Amino acid sequence: MSNIPARVAALAIALLPVVGDAASMSLDQALTRAVQRSAAARAARAETASARQAARAAGQLPDPAFSLGIDNLPVSGADRFSTTADSQTMKRIGISQEWVSRDKREARRAAADAAADRQAATTDIAVADTRLQTALAYIDAYYVGEALRFAMLDEHHADEALAAAKARLASSRGDAQDVLALTAARGLAEDDSADVRQAQADASVGLQRWVGEPVDVLESPAMGQAPSEAAYVAASPAVRSARLEVDVARREAALAASERRPDWSWQVSYGQRSGYPDMLSFGVSIPLPVARAERQDRQVAARVALIETAEARLEEATRAAAAEYRALDNDAQRLARRIERIRSAVVGPARQRTEVALAGYRSTGTPLATLFEARHAQVDAQRKLLALQRDLARTQARLVYGPVIEGVQP
Q1: 276 domain-assigned
Q2: Which of these, 154, 150, 252, lies nearest to 162 by C-alpha position?
Q3: For residue 248, with 0-12 CB atoms within 10 Å meaning exposed, 13-18 middle and 19 or more buried, which class applies?
C-alpha cells in the first residue's frame, strides 16, 4: 500500500474538470442565454406592445358617423315609393360626432397608460423569474457534479481497499471478514455513485431547459452582492406589481370621476327636395344625468374603494417581501456559520484521521478496514460540507436574483 498516495493523486487529477475541448459555461453566461431564449419574456413583451397601442388609441375622439337616408317617403297611394312626387319627401345626407372633452380624453389615456405600465412590468418580472430559476438550476447542476466527484473517490477507495484485502487474504496475512465487509462497502459505494449520476442527469436536464443545450463543464457559481432589505423589498415582483395596481386604481378612479360629465353629440345633415328649396339641419344631443347620485356617483365610489383594496394589497406584499428577505438573510448567515463549523470541526479532523490511519497502516499494520473507514468518513464530511455550500448558494441566489433588476433586457 505504499503507492496509495500516488494513486489517490492520480485519481484526483483524473476527476478534475476537462476544460480543453469540453463546452464550459459560467453562471453569467447561463443567465444571459436563458433570458435571450425566454418564451415567457417574449410573450410579456408582445402583451406590453399590445397595451401600448391600446393606450395610444384611448385618448382619441370617437369616429364620426355618416348618415344617408330618405325622409317622408310615401308608402301608399298613387305616389308610393316615389322620391320626387311629394314635396315632403327629402333625400338626406349627414354627419354626426360625439364630442369628448380634452380632460376626459386625457383621463382615459392616463388610465390606459397605467394599465400598459402594469403590463410592461410583467416583462421585467418574467425576466427576473427566468434568471432566478436558471441560477437555481445552475447551482444544482454544479454541486451535483461536485458530489459525483466525491462519490467516485469513495468508490475508488472501496475498490482499492478490497483489492488490498484480497491480496492480504491470498498471502494468509488477511482476514476473510475484512474482505466481506469491504465487498459490501464497495457495493454501497457503487450504488451511491449510480444514485448521484442519476441526480446529475436530472440536474443537467433541468439546466438545459433554460439554456437550451447540454453543458459539459460548469464554472463555480459566482453571484453578485445581495441587496439591502429596502432594495430587495422595493424590487420584489409582488411589491412592484402591487404598486402598479395602486396607480391603475387611482387613474381609473379619476377616469370615473370625469365620466360624471356627459359627452355631447352634434349632428349636421343636408336634405334635398324636388321642386322645393333644399334643407340644412343641425342639432346637439346632451345626455341628462337625472340620477347622478344613484349611478355616476356610485361608479366613482366603487372605483375609489378599489384604491383602498390595491393599497392594502401593496402593504401586505411589502410586509411579505420584508419577511422573506429577513428569512433568507438569516438562513444565509446560519448556513455560513455551519459551513465554517463543519470545515474546522469535522472536515479538518477527518482529514487528520485519514493521515494517521494511513501512516499506521504503512508502519504498524493498522487494519485495512480502519483505513477505509477513515477515508470514507473524510469523504462523507466533504460531501456534507458540499451540501451546505449548495444550500447557501441557493439562498444567496434567491436574494440576488429574486428581485427585479432594472436594465436587464431579453
Answers
A1: no
A2: 154
A3: buried
pLDDT of residue 132: 95
- Side-chain-side CA neighbours of 265 within 13 Å: the count stands at 12
Query: Would residue 94 count as lying in a domain?
Result: no
pTM of the predicted model as reported, rounded to 2 decimal places: 0.80
Q: What is the pLDDT confidence band of residue 268, given thresholds at 50, 70 and 90?
A: very high
Residue 67 domain flag: no
Q: What mean pLDDT is predicted for residues 202-226?
A: 90
Between the alpha carbon of residue 69 and those of residues 87, 89, 93, the distances in Å are 16, 11, 6
* Domain assignment of residue 39, yes or no: no
CATH of the domain at 237: 1.20.1600.10
On the question of pLDDT at 17 being above 80, the answer is no
Strand partners of residue 90:
71
Expressed as residue numbers, the domain containing 156 is 4-19+45-61+101-261+291-401
User: How many domains would you assign to the chain?
Assistant: 1
More confident residue, 388 or 178: 388
List the one residue out of 155, 379, 126 whose CA is nearest residue 241.
126
Give the integer Cα–Cα distance in Å for 38 and 123: 10
8 Å CB contact between 128 and 404:
yes
Binned at pLDDT 50, 70 and 90, residue 3 comes out as very low
